[in-house]
């Protein structure tokens, strides 16, 4: 039976092993001294706490380039998220297969959500359509929304929204690149300043009866 120690997990996560063991104790997983944690059971416990041990049907609204890419993403199923339907407002998209599923028209949105027991919706529409789609999702019973549209959504209490803005993520990376460039420039300037420092002035020699007297006389 494969096991893993708290020290190994702590090193991989970059945390203190004592803190890691304390956190795991809240899951009901105490491990075995000298042996470690049963990997399979530990994965189950973490998955259970994250709500990943059950099937979560998800709808994706807006099947453009981004929506199609999300539909083809293979990581959803492995984490317990089943794409129940792909929905788009373009009548020309209706019936077209994307990721092995036929795209359905937005006219069917409420029925799709009801029939599949959907509580999580993904919005990948243009910004101008996102709020209207959000309102319809919420009215149909969706209580969690992952928003890829470049706009801020307004939702009632009890509805959770997570916004994914790729441009903001790129701006964050650009900030870090700018900071690193500034640090490198400062380091180069410091090196140049050290390289051009004037040489230390030579100490004058004293003259003695037998010639120059060294600055430090031998003992």
| CATH class division of the largest domain | Alpha Beta
The main β sheet shows up as:
7 strands, mixed
Output the strand order for the largest sheet: 5-6-4-3-7-8-9
Structural class by secondary-structure content: alpha/beta
Radius of gyration, in angstroms, nearest whole number: 32 Å
Q: Helical element count?
A: 8
Strand percentage, roughly?
A: 15-25%
Can you name the CATH architecture of the largest domain? 3-Layer(aba) Sandwich
CATH topology of the largest domain: Rossmann fold
The overall average pLDDT, rounded, is 86
The portion of residues assigned to helices is: 40-55%
Q: Can you give a write-up of this model?
A:
This protein has helices at 6-13, 17-25, 39-49, 65-71, 75-78, 109-116, 127-140, 166-195, and strands spanning 3-4, 37-38, 56-61, 81-88, 97-98, 101-105, 120-123, 144-147, 160-163, 206-208, 211-213. It is α/β, with parallel strands linked by helices and 219 residues long. The chain has two domains: 3-49, Arc Repressor Mutant, subunit A (Orthogonal Bundle), CATH 1.10.10; 60-168, NAD(P)-binding Rossmann-like Domain (Rossmann fold, 3-Layer(aba) Sandwich), CATH 3.40.50.720. The protein has a seven-stranded mixed β-sheet, with helices on both faces. A two-stranded antiparallel sheet has the order 1-2. A two-stranded antiparallel sheet has the order 10-11. The longest helix is centred in the C-terminal third of the chain and has 30 residues, at 166-195. Mean pLDDT is 86; it is low at 213-219.
């Amino acid at each position: 039976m494969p096991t893993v120690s708290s020290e190994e997990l702590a090193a991989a996560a970059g945390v203190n092993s004592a803190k890691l063991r304390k956190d795991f104790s809240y899951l009901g997983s105490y491990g075995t001294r000298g042996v470690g944690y049963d990997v399979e059971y530990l994965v189950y416990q973490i998955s259970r706490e994250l709500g990943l041990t059950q099937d979560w049907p998800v709808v994706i609204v807006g099947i453009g380039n981004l929506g199609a890419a999300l539909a083809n993403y293979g990581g959803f199923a492995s984490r317990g998220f089943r794409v129940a339907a792909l929905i788009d407002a373009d009548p020309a998209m209706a019936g077209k297969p994307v990721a092995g599923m036929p795209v359905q028209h937005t006219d069917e949105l409420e029925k799709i959500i009801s029939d599949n027991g959907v509580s999580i919706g993904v919005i990948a529409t243009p910004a101008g359509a996102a709020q209207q789609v959000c309102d319809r999702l919420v009215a149909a019973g969706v209580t969690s929304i992952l928003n890829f549209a470049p706009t801020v959504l307004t939702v009632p209490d009890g509805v959770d929204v997570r916004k994914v803005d790729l441009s903001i993520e790129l701006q964050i990376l650009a900030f870090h690149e700018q900071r690193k460039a500034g640090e490198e420039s400062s380091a180069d300037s410091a090196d140049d300043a050290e390289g051009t420092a004037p040489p230390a002035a030579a100490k004058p020699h004293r003259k003695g009866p037998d010639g120059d007297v060294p600055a430090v006389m031998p003992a």
